[in-house]
Amino acid sequence: MSSIHVRIATIAVAVLTLVLGAAAPVHAAGLPNCNDQGATVPCVEMVWANGVQVKMTFVDLNPKPSNAPTEKFYVMAPQTGSPQGRVPFLHDHLIGNVSPQHDDRDGRVRYHGFFVLCSAQGITSGGCVPTMTSIPGLGTIPFARTVNGHTLTSADPIESPVNSGLLTVFDTGGVFIATIKSRQVDESR
């Protein structure tokens, strides 16, 4: 791996830690939003799943290493005028499976974090529209906003363009445990 890839990987893990560091679980009303100053786990934050926003409760931001299966947790450019995350940069989140098959106990699921970036091919072809995002220590990164004219509010617009080269999905190395309740859909956005 080249030194630039090592640097990006190291910084990405640090940034994902910051993105998730304020995050936590949603079991009861009254938990703080993960973006609130001083919020600690448990806290809630919205994530996209199958075209709607659902509440995610972060249970464990630093789980013990395990060979347990994981679900993908994507971090990309905001998809609406109201970003789901503000720390350490404006962003949204996406999960592909609201009813995960890999439940731990009590509906807890192990998620693995990935940044969704426009590739050079995606930008030059116009197939991927980035939001250029400045991240301290890393520089300006092309987080994906749309691909082939589609917002990234469900997994299909991410997984297919990755295969065609329009997107780059960068493994942050971050793993955490969270819960999702599909009935916790936010219809206000």
Describe the structure.
This protein has 189 residues and is α+β, with helices and mostly antiparallel strands. The protein has one domain. The chain has helices at residues 3-21, 120-125, 156-164; strands at residues 44-49, 52-60, 71-76, 92-95, 109-118, 128-135, 139-147, 150-151, 167-186. The strands form two sheets. Strands 1-2-9-5-3-4 form a six-stranded mixed sheet.
Short synopsis of the structure:
With 189 residues, the chain is α+β, with helices and mostly antiparallel strands. It contains three helices and nine strands.
Helices and strands in order:
Layout: H1 3-21, E1 44-49, E2 52-60, E3 71-76, E4 92-95, E5 109-118, H2 120-125, E6 128-135, E7 139-147, E8 150-151, H3 156-164, E9 167-186
Parallel strand pairs: 3-5
Antiparallel strand pairs: 1-2, 2-9, 3-4, 5-9, 6-7, 7-8
| Unreliable stretches covering 5 or more consecutive residues | 1-28, 183-189
The first-to-last residue Cα distance is: 41 Å
Order of helices and strands: HEEEEEHEEEHE
| Beta-strand share of residues | 35-45%
- The number of E-state strands comes to 9
What's the pLDDT, averaged over the residues? 79
Total discrete domains: 1
